[in-house]
Design a protein that fits this description.
This protein has about 230 residues and is α/β, with parallel strands linked by helices. Helices cover about 30% and strands about 10% of the residues. A four-stranded antiparallel β-sheet has the order 1-2-8-3. A two-stranded parallel ribbon has the order 4-5. Strands 6-7 form a two-stranded parallel ribbon. A hairpin with a 4-residue loop joins strand 1 and strand 2. The N terminus is likely disordered.
Length: about 230
């Protein structure tokens, strides 16, 4: 059986704590007992992973990962997925000459920068896909047996404005926040963020309001909240 390569969305797990003995939802940091928020806005690299999976599934005749697993009764990840980076991002940014000319799709220089100007519909679909992928992994992968009973209780979604404000306050008070003040394209990153990170971009929320709306940068990004149902 071929296996899917899941690089960022379902990697980098760590235990919540010794008592609970479950893994923190991938890519997130704990906000309270039931909410976990993305460490940073969704990156170019992570969004490329999503675009690649969509392309692979579409070529097989499926519109979603859940549709694929229901149709095939598949317990593993039988899709051989090679991240097509940067061609899919070039296509994604093709309607923005400024970002294209700057090479914002570049796999090396901007892979850990926020994906920009994703529509709200695309952001919602990304969160839904992420829920399906992580839930499936927790349910069937022996490496994540600790979380098997939680696999149907997770839900990635867009954050509300209040949740993002709460997160900024919470992580500021605990000195576990990075807030970049320089221009987005001047920021140098060599790896994924490990602390709650705010870039100089506006962020989509569940409402029409934008978080970090005072940012003087014209682009928008987004991050997900992961809810753990009790």
């Amino acid at each position: 059986m071929k296996t899917i390569i899941i690089l960022l969305l379902v990697g980098n797990f760590c235990l919540l704590n010794a008592q609970n003995s479950i893994e923190i939802p991938p890519g997130t940091i704990q906000l309270n007992d039931s909410l976990f928020i993305d460490v940073s806005p969704v990156t170019n690299s992570t969004f490329t992973e999503y675009l690649t999976a969509k392309k692979v599934l579409k070529n097989k005749g499926y519109d979603s990962f859940s549709e694929f697993t229901k149709a095939t009764n598949e317990k593993g990840f039988p899709i051989e997925m090679k991240v097509i980076f940067p061609p899919l991002l070039i296509e994604f940014y093709s309607n923005n000459n400024y970002l294209t000319e700057l090479g914002y799709w570049s796999g090396y220089q901007f892979q850990y920068h926020p994906v920009l100007n994703v529509s709200k519909e695309q952001a919602i679909n990304f969160c839904k896909w992420r829920t399906e992928m992580v839930s499936h992994l927790w349910k069937y992968d022996e490496k994540h047996a600790l979380n098997k009973n939680q696999s149907d209780k997770i839900n990635y979604r867009l954050a509300t404005e209040n949740e993002l404000i709460l997160a900024k306050t919470f992580f500021s008070n605990s000195n576990t926040i990075i807030e970049f003040k320089e221009k987005l394209l001047d920021i140098k990153l060599e790896k994924n963020a490990t602390q709650f990170t705010i870039f100089p971009v506006k962020e989509l929320t569940t409402s029409e309001k934008l978080f970090n709306f005072n940012s003087n940068y014209g682009f928008t990004g987004f991050r997900c909240i992961c809810e753990m149902k009790k």
